[in-house]
Amino acid sequence: MFNKILIANRGEIACRVIKTARKLGIATVAVYSDADANALHVAMADEAVHIGGAPSRESYLVIERVIEAARKTGAEAIHPGYGFLSENSEFCRACDAAGIVFIGPPVGAIEAMGSKSAAKRIMEEADVPLVPGYHGEDQDPALLKKAADDMGYPVLLKATAGGGGKGMRQVWSAAEFDEGLAAAKREAMNGFGDDRMLVEKYLTKPRHVEIQVFCDGHGNGVFLAERDCSVQRRHQKVIEEAPAPGVDPALRTRMGEAALQAAKAINYVGAGTVEFLLDEDGSFYFMEMNTRLQVEHPVTEMITGQDLVEWQLRVAYGETLPLTQEQVQIKGHAFEARIYAEDPANDFLPVTGTLSFLEPPEESRHVRVDTGVLQGDEVSVFYDPMIAKLIVWDEDRDAALRRLGKALSEYRISGMTTNVDFLYNLATCEPFKAAELDTGFIGKHHDKIFHDGEQDVAAGATLAALYLVLRRAADARHGSAAAHDPYSPWNQSNAWRLNEPHVHLFELELQGQHFPVVVEQLGQGSGISYNITVAGKTVRAQGKLAGSDLYADIDGYRSRATVAEHDGVYSLYTQESAQQFSQVTADLGAEDAGSGDAALCAPMNGTIVTLLVEPGSEVKKDAALLVMEAMKMEHTIRAPADGTVKAFYYAAGELVEGGADLLDFEPAAD
Ligand code: MV4
After folding, report:
1. What percent of the chain has pLDDT over 70?
2. What residue ranges define each of the domains in the chain, with the CATH number in brackets?
3. Among 65, 169, 207, 292, which one carries the catalytic annotation?
4. Which of 195, 211, 294 is nearest to 256 (CA)?
5. Does 235 sit in the ligand 1 pocket, CB within 6 Å?
6. HEC-encoded secondary structure of 631-645
7. Using one digit for the tens of pLDDT, what is the confidence trace for 189-201?
8. Does the pTM exceed 0.70?
9. Which residue's alpha carbon is at the smallest distance from atom 3 of ligand 1?
10. Which residue's CA lies nearest to atom 19 of ligand 1?
11. In the annotation, is 233 catalytic?
12. CB of 210 closer than 6 A to ligand 1?
């Protein structure tokens, strides 16, 4: 077996390959761009080589740099992952020329599948079923029209140079053919510089069902069942599953054997995927063959119990396939959901930013998370905005789908918009549960998937209020624990008031709604509980914080929530929903230009509620220094700059007049 391999990729697939290599005792070399210097895949690898600038064309796509990195580190083989150079025949040749094993198919197979029309001709000769149609060289419009008339309408015009859904045009009747052909040719010439067309029978409700095939260098080949990837948006897969609903063992065998025929037709070696269109009547037709390990390979791994990257390494090293066809067994059902930094409400535009809070669901034999990022990482503009792949498995589809919904509801990300809610709505909508799958699924069920779940904002506000008072108590305890006099009244946060009940008053903004909140503190020490009044309803609440987790008891109902804070905005994740909230503070007006003094004055008559730091503390800009109550609301006074709190002029509970200086603050020297 190889001693050392280089992974010519990044993100989750690089981490995934490194995990298997480590399992097999193989040393790993990562390559990285300027943008990935602190990336997870670099940290996981035994060695790492910088190969260029952030743009892929300056790094991950630069063949000679990748080859040089392998040479310099003594890597015997290169795993290309998917995307980037994984189906680049020139890269494959460069590996061969450098005496480095390309962990993938022979270059001839890559080239054979590189042209969609050439691929179809190869498959036709191999008796692999094709969609009824014409894909010849003769492009005489009359001949194309006769082919369309003979196969019957609707037909699909496809640009030979197209692919991935680009350059397709439906023609629904003979009367529309000439105009449709002319338009399709114009678009193809503009888009690809090539206006050759193929004409196919248009399948109006097809499913995208693909077969995983694996061939070794000794003439053996097996198929490892199928995956249904019909749920796509603009030809990007969203949720994949294995096995495909409704595919019985007989159909599975027919499709698998057709896929193996396709692989054998091009002397395939390695992991490959043969994509078919599956029509409603159970007939299936070759679409294309991918000569790489696919993004969605984990669902196949979950139902077969096989590690396909291990198979790739063994086959590339010259071993025979680990299993015969008879030994390939499938058990249960698996789904994969692709977690992306994108905004479904804004036409799925990718978003960038920092993953300020990232808490995936707990992994188990039922839940797997393949990711290449950690909390605090940037999602940059340079690469695919994938955050992770969430893969689940269970004994049958319904059970696996329940796991998918639960795992999505437990995926906590803040600091940027993601597609998690969209995926949750998709995974839990009735048509998906009923496996009413076809390639038009998302368009057909748009309203079910894009609805805003009814959120109980009042319940969210109650939890948010509980969190804030517990947080404040914890901060004050922290402050007094660090103080010379831990019992100083200056550091209490029990909302003590002279001759009044201990009440916290503040206002929340949650999901765009404002909620005045009254929190009456009852008891002391560990027996503290609260009467929380929100939206006219009062509950008895208690709870505790453990890191980002809030363990709450509201009128005897216990639940766990997770709260992440990012720039004063909190994300509250419960089993049911994710809600954003923040504490409304009075507009203290802009500071006088150049001076921070205005920020350290009482905004109006009020009462000091609690002091949050010890006199003499050094603080950062915007650090919370004290809380005062005015106009029935609480206001947090924050440091106007980095500096030192020299002294407070008032203690908790004392009344202050509007405009009075509250503390002596010394900004840090510039
Ligand atoms: C088709 C088709 C219906 N009838 N061919 C889309 C991209 C490329 N993979 C082939 N595609 C299709 N070819 C015929 N004769 C419908 C599609 C299609 C599709 C196929 C698979 C997955 C998603 C799709 C989304 C739209 C259209």
Report:
1. 93
2. 4-103 (3.40.50.20), 132-201 (3.30.1490.20), 207-450 (3.30.470.20), 454-583 (3.30.700.30), 598-667 (2.40.50.100)
3. 292
4. 211
5. yes
6. CCEEEEEECCCCEEE
7. 988 899 999 999 9
8. yes
9. 203
10. 439
11. no
12. no
